[in-house]
Amino acid sequence: MRYQRVINESELLDGLSQPGSLIVCGGTDVIVKMRAGMLQPTLLLDVTQIESLHGIQVDEGHLEIGAATLESDIMHSPLVNQHAPLLALVLRQLGSVQIRNRGTLAGNIVNASPAADGAIPLLLYEAEVQVVGPAQEQWVRLESFFTGPGKTTLSSGEFVRALRMPIGTDGFRTFFHKVGKRNALTIAIASLGLLLNIEQGAIQEIRIAVGSVAPTPRRLRKIESQLTGRALDAALPLEARDLITGAIAPISDIRATAAYRRNVIGDLFARALRSHLTQPL
Q1: How do residues 192-234 score in pLDDT, each as one tens digit?
Q2: Cβ-count burial of 3 within 10 angstroms (0-12 exposed, 13-18 middle, 19+ buried)?
Q3: Strand order in 21-24's β-sheet?
Q4: Those residues with Cβ within 8 angstroms of residue 127's Cβ, 6 or more apart along the chain or in another chain
Q5: How far apart are CA 240 and CA 277, in angstroms?
Q6: Closest listed residue to residue 116, CA positions, set 216, 185, 208
């Protein structure tokens, strides 16, 4: 295997045109998979020095994050904490300090794990992925970017330059919780995130995303539409619990049964809504 540190996007595209090439940035997923024999690249392309893949900015009504920006830099960014506070909160729970100082949010997304913590807030903030290839570049909705466990729409020769999300949810209430087999550094057995806008005791807008209960992280748009406009009273959490448990179809594996995952998501959803009953409306 050869290793090459590329310094611009032109070099990166040239490297990706070679058979067996693979991008590495933080390496928190790639190196683990290489050691396990799951990946066997012939050319490893280090993109950490490409300036265009770094940085956080607000541009034309969007919060934009470069693909090589470290998770620790994202969670400490004033722009992220202002415009996407749930993203900062979730990243504080992602892995260890060492992992966050090496890993990238784009890498977490490209890895495409059904349990990817970073995907939950990005789905809620309606993020898009900037995909660059030899013939074109385009923005792809994150919901469409995932195609299955470990799979995305990325084709051979393409890479991710940035992530972006529209700003405009300042003041929305937030919720995120994941359940795992230990308290720290856990892979989620089930996870749920919410963005919630409540006015005069009624739900004006609700966004719901779940992880580890489907082949990819998911937005539950049908339930969102069913709950929009509803009064947030004591009866709604129980009704919402039934709605969400009927909307997901998790699998059983070595970490948990499907029934357990379904019950966890239902309980988390009910808890999230109840937590806002006691807040001023």
Answers
A1: 999 999 999 999 999 999 999 999 999 999 999 999 999 999 9
A2: exposed
A3: 2-5, 43-46, 21-24
A4: 141, 142, 163, 164, 165
A5: 14
A6: 216
Cα–chain center distance at 28: 16
C-alpha pair distances (Å), 227 with each of 31, 53, 202, 263: 43, 39, 9, 20
Task: Enumerate the H helices of 27-166 as residue ranges.
Answer: 30-35, 71-76, 78-83, 85-91, 97-100, 105-111, 119-124, 142-145
Q: Which structure tokens are listed for 68?
A: 């090589």
Mean pLDDT for the chain overall: 94
Rounded to a whole number of angstroms, the CA Rg of the chain reads 19
d(CA 268, CA 191): 8
Strand ordering across the sheet containing 218-219: 173-179, 190-199, 202-211, 218-219
Q: Where does residue 9 rank: exposed (0-12), middle (13-18), buried (19+ CB within 10 A)?
A: middle
Here the tokens at position 237 are 């959490």
62-66 sheet: strands from edge to edge = 56-59, 62-66, 159-166, 128-132, 137-141
| Contact between residue 112 and residue 152 where contact means Cβ atoms under 8 Å apart | yes
